[in-house]
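Researcher: Good morning. I'm working through a list of sequences from a screen, and I'd like to move beyond sequence-only analysis. For each chain I'm collecting a predicted structure so we can compare shapes side by side. This is the next one on the list. No need for commentary yet; just the structure.
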Amino acid sequence: MKTSIRKIGNSAGAILPAQLLKKLHLRLGDDVSIKEDGMRIVIEPAKTRRKYKLQDLVAQCNPNAPVADDLQAWDNAPTAGEELL
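Model: Good morning. Structure tokens for this chain:
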């Protein structure tokens, strides 16, 4: 596949053909990672971290799960300052 470098505002860019975007499952607005490898430019889909909501994570917790001994000891330890429980 061949494309050319084009002026885009104060920068430059290359147009990615639709068939390549489709093959790589990329859409407009997706983030990509660009790096130099010798005399090559490597463009890869960016590895994004999944965003979690607290309520979704808490919903996965088992309230009946056993508490680890070290955490139980921490919970039962006497206060050492002016903590409020």
